[in-house]
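Chain A, query sequence.
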Amino acid sequence: MNEPTVEGRKLSRSFGWLALLGTLLVIAGVIGLVYTGVATLTSMLLFGWLLLVGGLVGLLHAIESRGTNYFWLGVVVAALNIAAGVVVIKHPEGTAEALTMFAALLFLTGGVFRLVGSVVVRGPQMGWTLLQGAFGLLLGLLVLFDWPHSSLYVLGCFFSLALLFDGLGLIAFGLGGRRIVSMVSGRPDETAPTPDEPIK
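Chain A, predicted structure.
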């Protein structure tokens, strides 16, 4: 067995693992869309732990670089991340409500700016910009009017959709990569007859 064939099989196996990971992400995204409340709490806990771990890593990095001009800035930023992580982990529901309110305000302001900007500029993409602005404004109003109940499903829905689309992207990348590796390595099709076999 020659080396290119071995490397091709390794690459094909790696792309297969990517496709498998994408499948798991798609499954998790679908489950999250069904159970949005659980997905919301899960995303908040993950967010809290990311802040906490990032703060601890930043604190260790700041201690290692003590004596520099950025020591105290690193300590303050790390302490804020640790404190925010602890608060998010202890109060995921309250954090979800605050972030949902923030998201609704972002949708509202983004929608208003797109609407006003499209009317003032009147560019070639005016219709598409108007549609985006109207959609953002409507989404922000819907989330805001249903707040704080909307915090139970908005963030979980976004988190699940992100998992779903990331999973689909990994599946497409993994399957496409395996197909390209198979073409480059010149492996014969399994259905094609070998030279030792008669053609049926």
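The chain is about 80% helix and 0% strand. The chain has a mean pLDDT of 78.
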